[in-house]
User: What shape does this take?
Amino acid sequence: VLVSGMFTPLSQAFADVLGADAGVGTGLGFDADGVCTGKVVGSVCAGELKPQIALEYLAAQGIETDGAEIFASADSYSDVPLLSLAHHATATYPDEGLEAEVVAQGWERMG
Assistant: This one.
């Protein structure tokens, strides 16, 4: 499952390209005619809310996370909460703030 701050339709499209099962992101509003309003629906999928949104999605799909191995990769310090949830965290081309956390937590680093 790809979890991103992008709007969910974009996250899903990107997940499809990557071969991921689903794309989860920030909700995007549409009117009754199916026209995008540009309004955020629900919470922005970022920071402290990103792991919560990911876990809520998995629970809604009936996917049990207790005892499951969770993998996560991210490039931004704002993703520390998501990386902290994972059993296997990898920072990909981390920004300066995340780089410091990578060292402190002993997480893997790519790039």
Notes: The longest strand covers residues 23-30. Residues 49-60 form the longest helix (12 residues). The beta strands are 2-7, 23-30, 36-41, 71-74, 88-92, 108-110. The chain is about 35% helix and 30% strand.
